[in-house]
Amino acid sequence: MLVRHLSLTDYRNYSRAEVPLFRGPNLFVGRNGQGKTNLVEALGYLSTLGSHRVSNDQALIKSSAQAAIIRARLQHEERELLVELQLNRSEPNRAQVNRSVVKVREIPRYFSSVLFAPEDLALVRGDPSVRRRFLDQLLVARTPRLAGVTADYDRVLRQRNTLLKSARTAGVRGSGLSTLDIWDDRLVVLGSEIITERAALVSELRPRVDAAYRAVAGADHAPRLTNRLSIMPGTNTDDELHDTHAAEPGELVRGAGAGIPDTRAGVEEAFRASLASARKQEIDRGITLVGPHRDDVVFELNSLPAKGYASHGESWSFALGLKVASAELLRSDSQTGDPVVILDDVFAELDQSRRGRLAAAVGGFEQVLITAAVLEDVPAELAAHTVHIDAGAIVDQDADDGVRPGERGGGTRD
């Protein structure tokens, strides 16, 4: 999969931008705050329907506009697609593929990308919710129908939490909670599918993360990924405590893999039992305490939790390894070629040796997009096509990129 052309209208600081892109590496260079990340953020949005920097779409729309438009011309072999997404301030977003209206949630099935940015250090050092989101985005990228499963689970979870809060307020017990049993059934069915799919994904990621970590770090620190399920006995269900940082060196994290059911039926049985044992506590607190929304995946290096024990460089290498492994996994089962690999302001955080190893690790993908504030931070092999950005305008493209003067991208300064 290649992006041949990116067009933005009223997106972030761009009134208008037209950017031709090429097979292989494409480098965007500019001082901080000039708009280079906005270009790759827009493409990342097409594959995940979310930004890696903000949670609200409104921040993506230029302050003076009511809507922003992202257009990308994609190519796989001889087939071309025009994917368009309009982000609106006061009405639902809209989408088109080859000028035909489609549902917005269908857009990611046409475009696949893997984006790594400084924010992704939170995969190693952040809360469990960051790791859950990482797994779920990768699941949906591989199997788009799971977007509906996760959305349905979230809806059922909200309904169940509302009922639990009402029961707590009214002091309802016993037979008065028969409605809760109905929501339990839906929660178990949907949640067990998510748990099973995540477990299978982690199993597939393990060998790829091991290889990618060694490739990026230049060392073998025995990286390990282990599921930690809230439905397993002994697992703490509080997010703020649901973290391996508190584990002592060599301590077995309870619920971190031993005895986890290896079948969907086994997961459902364990889920139902866990809900039954937690019901009194859930009513007392008015919240659902077990399920995939409370799970985590434990990252370890040399048998120690990466969070709390890994150095800054090791944490970066682990996070990079996760993203490179994700790209390799998407490549292995894709019908539309490689995902587009996006490296947003990554090289400034790496030492010289890691820069070279990362360049080698991603160099084999069909298309790689890189942003950097300093050209010299990026290995020369990734600078074949370089675009210079200044204040929301494309001011220069390298002469060897094959673009004729009349075809250069343009933008309007704020």
From TrEMBL:
InterPro entries: DNA-binding_RecF, DNA-binding_RecF_CS, P-loop_NTPase, RecF/RecN/SMC_N, RecF_2. Its main location: cytoplasm. PROSITE patterns: RECF_1, RECF_2. ATP binds at G30, R31, N32, G33, Q34, G35, K36, T37. It is found in: Cytoplasm. The RecF protein is involved in DNA metabolism; it is required for DNA replication and normal SOS inducibility. RecF binds preferentially to single-stranded, linear DNA. It also seems to bind ATP. Belongs to the RecF family. This is DNA replication and repair protein RecF. It comes from Subtercola frigoramans. The gene is recF.
